[in-house]
Amino acid sequence: MANAQRSNRPTQINRLLAGVGLVAWSALAGAADLVVAHMAPFTGPASIEAAEYNAGIRLAIKATNAAGGINGQQLVLKTANDEYKPEQAVAIFRQLAAENTVATLLPVGSPAMGQILKEGLPETLKLPIIGLIPAAEPFRAPLNPYVYHVRAGDLSQYRKLVEYAQTIGVKRIAVAYADIPFGTAGLAAIEGMLKKQGQNLVARVALPMADPARLPEIVDALARNSPDIVFMVSPAKLAGDFLKAYRAKGIGAPLAMPSYGNADVLCAIAGKDTARGVIMAQVMPNVSNTAIPIVRRFQEDIKKHGEKDMRPNIFQLEAYVTTQVLLEGLRRAGTAAPRQKLVPALDGLKRLDLGGYTVEFSPTRHTGSEFVDISIIGRDCKLMF
Q: Edge-to-edge, what's the strand order for the sheet holding 75-81?
């Protein structure tokens, strides 16, 4: 099965990237169009997340355009690959701001986003970001007037995972974290929560983004501390590689992680049987529960407007939901100078119910949702909530 999963993995990645226009900009935008951008690392360690988010954005835009657009204007998506390189992300963001882009959606990657925020680009260039990924606390506080966070923050997810561990009675907690700012922030958050309760981590191991070949020796070091549960703070691809190495050593302690660990990616890399039982916090509703109106609408739009072989997942749903937030802001901004009016419009979204998923913004609150749930990967890679 492991060999079959490995052979399927390039096919999966190629399918995801097939619909992404990996060119600097689209030349199709006219003067009357609303141009939004998705800058993300379509190559590199977070490429799967980037491609899945892009698919969800494209779906939301296609469905909106088919229904007449926003205030009579059609939407055009610019897609740019920053290759997980902070300096390239900065250059792309500057170029986007200098052009006719009204907003950017779901940029991915803590190194790039850390640099963009450090340089103060959103506020100095007056280009809004909606749905920054990751949702680590250093990116959310202090409030940036041009950055809007849709999903619940990482702190809420870690708190939920710690509560879950306490509920099932485990005491010896270890953390395996990616050696990037998002990973170290997650380690610090979990460690702080446990210390407040008089607990200490039994182990902490850094997972190298650039050298996954070292994972077996890192797993050995982790196993020597006999954890009852291991929290993974990592992008999906690295989490899948770690999961594979972890289970290959025959370690039985459960693994838990925040929502960055897409179930399909973990299964594609490590195999369905290996991924079974992994616990994940989720910041979006169950993608299969069509009793939830926003999920039902998402599923219906996939049937009507989805690209060939598009299979709904949590990343796509998050992108779809995040795009709905931007679209509502653009509706309220009107047709005259929408980029300049978008921030006041978004700040006025008080308890916007998208259909079972609520976000709330104000001039002093740019963290939209508090939704966090716990899921477990079950048989055939199905998430159980």
A: 75-81, 34-40, 101-105, 129-130, 147-148
